Amino acid sequence: MSQLASLTLYHNDEARPIIEAIIADNPGVRVLNMPGAVKLDCEGALVVKRASVEERLGREWDPQEIHLVLISMAGHLDEDDDQFSVSWKH
Q: Do you know which InterPro entries this protein is assigned to (predicted)?
């Protein structure tokens, strides 16, 4: 049985391009819209790719910027210059 990796982000203008990138880059992601927030769940891992977010924003984006719109997460965090991910893999 695999666990769900999860990110919950504010549902605002700053988070929308990130949410769109997550949905595009993570097949099978489940999206739960709540008042003021969006919860994204995926079996095993969720990845936020810098290039995908930059494409939607039209500017450079540092994966550290996700912390400005991040409410909660479930999984082990791994981040570098190109991506931010949560997973249950070791």
A: MOase_MmoB_DmpM (IPR003454), mOase_MmoB_DmpM_sf (IPR036889)
What distance in Å separates the CA atoms of residue 88 and residue 90, rounded to the nearest whole number? Answer: 7
Write out pLDDT tens, residues 27-80.
Answer: 999 999 999 999 999 999 999 999 999 999 999 999 999 999 999 999 999 999
Query: What stretches of 35-82 adopt beta strand conformation (E)?
Result: 37-43, 45-49, 70-74, 76-79
The letter for the amino acid at 22 is I
* Rounded to 5°, angle at Cα 79 from 59 and 5: 105
Q: For residue 63, is it left (φ>0), alpha (ψ between -120 and 50) or beta? A: alpha
Q: Which conformational region is residue 58 in: left (phi greater than 0), alpha (psi within -120 to 50 degrees), or beta? A: left
**Token pair listed for 78:** 């791994």
Count the Cβ atoms, other than its own, within 10 Å of residue 28: 8
Using CA atoms, how far apart are residues 79 and 58, in angstroms rounded to an integer?
22
